[in-house]
TrEMBL record:
GO terms under cellular component: extracellular region; plasma membrane
Compositionally biased region (Acidic residues): 896-939
Membrane topology: Multi-pass membrane protein
Location(s) in or outside the cell: Cell membrane
Name recorded for this polypeptide: UPF0182 protein GH723_02050
Main location: membrane
Family of the protein in this entry: Belongs to the UPF0182 family.
Length: 1010
């Protein structure tokens, strides 16, 4: 027998601890690596806010998210862990035998020693699921903590509107979360009791122990109390009902739904009492009765009964039953949309103007806008971009002092075009070409001899800044519209400011510049370079030798994205506009505070909002509370509070005091360039068409309601709609036309003595098939500092005033103008029609519409060719506004800013430019209609024009068949017929009126040689 020391030892079991540690380390390393980019994003976000000295915003928003997630995760964890702990403590010592006992026995053998760890793990998993998402409620939490009273009580419950805006959303979220949390806890707790043996399903006798029944009864009682709190809040939610004729609590809500909710509240309290009382009783009869009663009342009283009342009491007499609630909606909507203080004036329309009226209103005539920003953007790009790495993203209408006169202008910023950078490398895209250069300004009524804008500020390097009285010392534009990516400045690679023209044969030169701002993020350290390399998934910032210790990185360069990052709780206008201020270019963006929690207010009608508008979401209250300014050079962001009476902006200002500034801190001169916001005015005019009515009966019938006037479009026939006809010839409907967009005007309003910069939109009577197009009213919004925000509506007396749709139809159907447009709109060129501008003068209305032509193809430079003017039933189309007014009102001697050569018809092409296809041959055309003519002459003219139209149609057919010679012959014959018709009418006009007819340059475009 061996001694004990020599006895063989059993093999030592390999310890699993090392493997576990290795697995944990590997998992942690994997999570760290996969999270590095997210960590870098958070870190660089903080650096970005800190560089703008807005760290409090970042910490405020992120802090609110962390606080909410921590509170709710912790709360759920504690509740779940406590209930699981109680479930374990209430487990019976002796479990009755049953079919499932063997399986549960194995579970206890495995889990028993690790009970606390299992409870904690289960609680943590469910807590993370239930609590992490609550971080998204950060905005509701901030408003809840910074509540401000509106000073207005809702008419149903007498609560201040601030309760609905600031408190009710978060309280409703809280009750909903608690109800869902306790349902999850109830289910998991019941499962814990099952595995502990307190609940047995497959045995005879008592299946639930008294202790378990007591525990579950308490949880059910808590659920009933939470639901009762929810019902209490649901009463207030009725103020946002959409059941009735308008939004807000209506007859059915107040007289049926509200009593049902109150009854459900009482039943929930009664059920809670039954659940708690059931602790002392055997069985589950009382809980079943409570749940059954609650289900019955929910279905019958809260569902069937209100539907019955609505169908059989309200619908047959809706106008009477809903009248007091409609009145509530009318008042609340006008307050919430800011249209409760609109000044309404009668406009005593007279159908004719005369030469004396034109002479007495030269200030209005001088600023009639001929440049359409949408159309002439291509012209600005062709004539002023100068280099491919510049572009004009958008043009805007504004006003500046030019030659001592306040003048309406079109303004564009020459921004960086990343797609046009000639050096296709990281160095070129990021270090060399970093910015745009300077503004371009053209008076909106100034046309040069070629029909193109007459620029007063432009060129590279910048010229003409003295013309607007604003010195430009820092023309570089590092931040703009639609500018993505990032740039690194203050590097050893010099930045290209612009290219310098050099004599032929010599190497090109470039002017260079170095950024002197301090709002970029310092990127000199290796840690920061690595963080940005991760953020942008680009290793170049980490390895580039050009980056110095003082280098800065500029990112989030799009002005709207920049503002939305700084103030995510503010909604921004779709149209930032460039302003020359403080020696450079800044972008002004209107900021809105909105909510959908204003009791009884109607949800906003968002039709015709600009694409990308911050107001394109559901809301029933809006204020233009902020004017945001982004410095185009250094990206500094300032939010100026323009409506300090708005409770929402006051609440946000309490939360983030360093983010906002007062209006008196605005730079000198900037207030003179503020504009009433387009998106807000669009919403207000959409709503005012119905809510200008003050009588409930009229509002209900909509017989006197207005609609925004139809948009005629920029191409001939674009604004027209027609009935939809089936194959059998039956009319099945009519397509609704787009509505006219608001536009800015510098003008003197009726009954006013001084000019003002206003936004205008017109109204027509509302009609079922969009057939009514006569002008019923027009609204203006003031932008000048003294009267900023004043809304005035001018109402016409009857139905005999032509609206924009009628005027446009008359233009395209005019027997003289229509053939000329057809000739210009043939192959090789295209006609574009600018805004149809309504200009009130004295007690009448002048309609003005510029007509542009552009060559077909890739190189498009729209040029103003004609101006169409309508007054009453008279319409003329001439080569210039001055000629058109002189033709309509002989002896008026209108003063415009058009080039004399352009007015006289001595048109010259711009230097180095080829004339567009379809231009160059002169024909004659008469632009005026109306007046007395010889019937025989009129018939002859009409016959000639009909022949011309038929010939043009034949020419089109010949061109499609490939017969170019026949096409040219027919077009020439058509032109001869038109010239003959005009000559006859001119002769008639001379006989009748002693005056010559207007001359219009037209030509037949050459066919496409391909």
């Amino acid at each position: 027998m061996r001694p004990p020391t020599q006895m063989p030892r059993p093999p030592r079991r390999s310890s699993n601890r090392g493997r576990i540690i290795l697995v944990v380390v590997l998992v942690a390393a994997f999570l760290l690596v996969t999270s590095l980019r997210g960590i870098a994003g958070v870190y660089t976000d903080y650096l970005w806010f800190d560089a703008l000295e807005l760290g409090e915003v970042w910490t405020g928003v992120v802090g609110a998210q962390i606080i909410l997630a921590t509170i709710f995760v912790s709360l759920f964890f504690v509740l779940m862990f406590a209930n699981l702990w109680v479930a374990d403590r209430l487990a019976p010592r002796f479990r009755p035998t049953g079919p499932e006992e063997e399986l549960l026995e194995r579970y206890h053998d495995v889990v028993g020693p690790r009970a606390n760890l299992v409870r904690a793990g289960i609680s943590l998993v469910f807590a993370l699921i239930a609590g992490a998402g609550t971080a998204s409620q950060w905005n509701s939490w901030i408003l809840f903590r910074n509540r401000v009273d509106f000073g207005v009580d809702d008419p149903q419950f007498g609560m201040d509107v601030g309760f609905y805006v600031f408190q009710l959303p978060f309280l409703s979220f809280l009750t909903s979360w608690l109800f869902a949390a306790f349902i999850i806890i109830l289910i998991v707790t019941a499962a814990a009791h099952y595995v502990n043996g307190g609940i047995r399903v497959q045995i005879s006798g008592e299946r639930v122990t008294p202790q378990v029944k007591a525990h579950l009864s308490v949880l059910l009682g808590i659920l009933a109390l939470v639901r009762a709190a929810g019902y209490w809040l649901d009463r207030y939610e009725l103020n946002f009902s959409t059941r009735g004729h308008v939004d807000g609590a209506g007859y059915t809500d107040v007289n049926a739904q509200l009593p049902a909710i109150q009854l459900l509240l009482l039943i929930s309290l009664f059920a809670a009492a039954l659940f708690l009382y059931n602790i002392r009783r055997r069985g589950w009869v009382l809980p079943v009765v409570a749940v059954g009663l609650w289900a019955f009342v929910s279905i019958v009283m809260a569902g069937i009964y209100p539907a019955f009342i609505q169908r059989f009491q309200v619908d047959p007499a809706e106008s009477t039953r809903e009248a007091p609630y409609i009145e509530r909606n009318m008042e609340a909507t006008r307050q919430a949309m800011g249209i409760d203080d609109v000044e309404v004036r009668d406009f005593a329309y007279q159908p004719t103007l005369d030469a004396e009226d034109i002479q007495n209103n030269q200030d209005i005539i001088r600023n009639i806008r001929l440049l359409d920003p949408t159309i002439v953007n291509d012209t600005f790009q062709r004539l002023q971009a100068d280099f491919g790495f510049y572009r004009f993203n958008d043009l805007d209408v504004d006003r500046y002092m030019i030659d001592g006169e306040l003048t309406q202008v079109v303004v564009g910023a020459r921004e960086l075009n990343p797609d046009g950078i000639p050096i296709d490398s990281w160095e070129g895209q990021t270090l060399a070409y970093t910015h745009g250069y300077g503004p371009v300004v053209a008076p909106s009524n100034a046309i040069d001899a070629s029909g193109r804008p007459s620029f007063v500020v432009g060129e590279v390097p910048i010229e003409g800044d003295a013309n607007i009285g604003r010195e430009i010392t820092q023309p570089q534009i590092y931040f703009g519209e639609q500018l993505s990516g990032y740039s690194i400045v203050n590097t050893d690679r010099r930045e290209i400011d612009y290219e310098v023209n050099t004599p032929e044969g010599e190497d090109e030169e470039a002017a260079v510049v170095e950024y002197t701002g301090d709002n970029g993020v310092q990127v000199g350290s290796w840690l920061r370079r690595a963080a940005f390399a991760l953020r942008f998934a680009d290793y170049n910032p980490l390895i580039s030798d050009y980056i110095r210790s003082d280098s800065q990185i500029l990112y989030i360069r799009d002005v709207r994205e920049r503002l939305e990052t700084v103030a995510p709780f503010i909604h921004f206008d779709a149209d930032p506009y460039a302003v020359v201020i403080d020696g450079g270019v800044s972008f002004v963006v209107d900021g809105y505070t909105t909510t959908d929690r204003y009791p009884y207010a109607q949800r906003a009608d968002r039709e015709q909002l600009q694409p990308g508008s911050g107001l394109d979401h559901d809301f029933n209250y809006v204020r233009n509370s902020v004017k945001a300014v982004v410095n185009g050079y250094d990206g500094e962001v300032t939010l100026y509070v323009v409506d300090d009476e708005d409770p929402l902006v006051r609440a946000y200002r309490q939360a983030f005091p360093g983010l906002f500034a007062d209006m008196d801190e605005m730079p000198d001169g900037l207030e003179d360039n503020l504009r009433y916001p387009e998106d807000l005015f669009t919403i207000q005019t959409n709503m005012f068409g119905r809510y200008h009515l003050t009588e409930v009966a009229e509002f209900y019938s909509q017989s006197q309601a207005w609609d925004v006037a139809q948009d005629p479009g920029i191409r001939v026939g674009e604004g027209d709609t027609s009935n939809i006809t089936t194959e059998t010839g039956e009319v099945t409907g009519r397509t609704r036309e787009d509505r006219i967009e608001p536009y800015y005007l510098l003008m003197r309003l009726p009954e006013e003595e001084e000019q003002s910069f206003v936004m205008l939109r017109s109204f027509v009577p509302i009609s079922q098939n969009d057939q009514r197009k006569e002008l019923r009213a027009f609204m203006v919004a003031e932008s000048d500092p003294d009267d900023y925000g004043r809304l005035v509506t001018y109402v016409t007396p009857g139905t005999d005033v032509d609206g924009p749709g009628i005027v446009n139809a008359n233009i395209v159907a005019n027997e003289v103008i229509a053939p000329q447009i057809s000739l210009l709109n043939r192959e090789g060129s295209e006609v574009l029609l600018g805004d149809l501008i309504l200009v009130p003068i004295e007690d009448s209305i002048l309609y003005v519409r510029p007509l542009y032509t552009q060559a077909s193809g890739q190189t498009q430079v729209p040029e103003l060719r004609h101006v169409i003017v309508a007054s009453g039933e008279r319409i003329v189309m001439e080569d210039s506004l001055q000629e058109a007014l002189e033709e309509l009102f002989p002896g008026s001697s209108p003063e415009t800013l058009e080039d004399p050569e352009f007015v006289e018809g001595e048109e010259t092409e711009g230097e180095g430019e080829e004339p567009a296809e379809g231009e160059g041959e002169e024909g004659e055309g008469e632009g005026e209609t109306g007046g007395e003519t010889d019937p025989e002459v009129e018939a002859t003219v009409e016959s000639l024009l009909t022949e011309a139209n038929d010939l043009l149609e034949e020419a089109d057919a010949a061109l499609r068949d490939g017969s170019l010679a026949e096409y040219e012959r027919l077009v020439n014959e058509a032109r001869d017929r038109i010239a003959e018709a005009i000559a006859i009418r001119d002769g008639e006009g001379e006989d009748d009126a002693g005056g010559g007819g207007a001359t219009t340059t037209t030509s037949a475009p050459p066919p496409d040689s391909t």
